[in-house]
Design a protein that fits this description.
mainly alpha; 79% helix
Length: 280
């Protein structure tokens, strides 16, 4: 990364820019918190208005109480751990394969010739259609759930890596070669760092997608996990537990996205996007 920074001539961040970034983050947190509080209050008032039954929409307070009871019993933590484990393992494998394959496609004409038509065909296909085949091959265990996550999450990472690596300025590559960089150094010290912002964007798309697919796979294949718990609650007409599962998944997804966003900021301290913070 240091080599890319030298070539691009990155300017140091000023204290005023850091202050603006911190204040923007604080403002965003405050705005999001207010929106969530308003949503919770609106949910509670509408559920108690008499327009819907408690079965159709349980009150927010009763859903929170259900989550608390599940946490005390330990069931929540067991299901949360399984869902988080499957999501992160599948996401990590898909990310590693997607980045590696993306770099190979950009760097090798033979690899690009082989995988281009496969990617073009696979991209528009709803990946859930592969679930019956994977169940036939692997059964209903973790292997099936992980396989579905990998199949779905790999394409956003792969396409982002290809687009980012292809768009790297030729001047950077030529300058690195003139400094004596070999092919390995060119990939690790120039190509990947220069492509990192867009690659991270692909990861930020793939992570929530991994969680979504994990929940869907748990719902369809059974076993334990947040998705499976929601389906079991639905079979027994336990409306509060179903809505509790929705809240749990929403909170988990929110935390994962925030953690990856924070990681992006730390990894891109050297990049120009860190100098101009956005409100997104």
């Amino acid at each position: 990364m240091a080599r890319v920074a030298r070539i691009q001539g990155s300017s140091p961040r000023q204290d005023s820019v850091r202050f603006i970034a911190v204040m923007t983050s604080v403002a965003n947190i405050g705005r999001n918190s207010i929106a969530l509080v308003v949503l919770a209050i609106s949910w509670e008032l509408f559920a108690r208005s008499g327009l819907v039954t408690p079965f159709q929409l349980p009150s927010f307070s009763s859903v929170v109480a259900t989550i608390y009871e599940s946490a005390i019993s330990g069931e929540l933590w067991r299901s949360l751990w399984l869902t988080l484990y499957r999501t992160m393992v599948g996401f990590s494998i898909a990310s590693a394969i997607g980045i590696l394959l993306g770099v190979l496609i950009v760097r090798s004409r033979a690899v690009r010739w082989f995988f281009d038509p496969i990617i073009s065909i696979a991209f528009p296909i709803p990946k859930i259609v592969f679930l019956p085949i994977i169940v036939l091959w692997l059964g209903f265990g973790d292997a099936t759930k992980l396989s579905m996550i990998i199949i779905d999450a790999i394409l956003p990472v792969l396409t982002a890596t290809i687009a980012a690596a292809t768009a790297v300025q030729r001047d950077l590559i030529w300058s690195a070669k003139s400094m004596g960089a070999n092919d390995t150094e060119l990939v690790w010290d120039v190509l990947l760092p220069a492509a990192l912002p867009q690659v991270l964007t692909g990861l930020q798309v793939a992570l929530p997608l991994s969680l979504i697919i994990c929940i869907v796979a748990e719902m369809l294949t059974g076993g334990a996990g947040l998705g499976a718990d929601m389906m079991n609650a639905s079979r027994y007409s336990n409306s509060r537990a179903v809505f509790a599962g929705i809240v749990e998944v929403a909170v988990l997804g929110f935390l994962l996205i925030k953690i990856l966003g924070t990681l992006r900021q730390r990894l891109l301290r050297w990049h120009q996007e860190a100098v101009a913070p956005t409100t997104v």
